[in-house]
Design goal:
By secondary structure, this protein is an all-beta fold. The chain is built from no helices and six strands. 0% of the residues lie in helices and 39% in strands. Strand 5 and strand 6 form a beta hairpin. The model has no long low-confidence stretch (mean pLDDT 84).
Length: 82
């Protein structure tokens, strides 16, 4: 991974969610996505349609991995996160 790039994962234990930000190979939600750094003007917005797809309302865990660190985040998708 280069600076500015990151990966987004749904942990295997989180069986009820998939992710899609317009960059999957076949256009369908997946369990992991990789995002590369974008060259150009940092003041220019890039738009990627998509998001987190849930089979049922839940507190969904996602893992973000960069070249320097990783972090888990909890996303309340129609259900509270404890």
């Amino acid at each position: 991974m280069s600076d500015g790039s990151f990966e987004l994962h749904v942990p295997e234990s989180q069986f009820n969610a998939l992710i899609d930000w317009g960059n999957t190979v076949d256009g369908r939600p997946a369990g992991s996505l990789a995002f590369s750094s974008c060259p150009g003007d940092s003041d220019t917005w890039l738009v990627y349609p998509g998001g987190v797809w849930l089979y049922e309302p839940s507190c969904t865990e996602l893992v973000v991995i960069t070249t320097k660190t990783s972090a888990a985040l909890r996303l309340p998708g129609g259900a509270e996160c404890p």
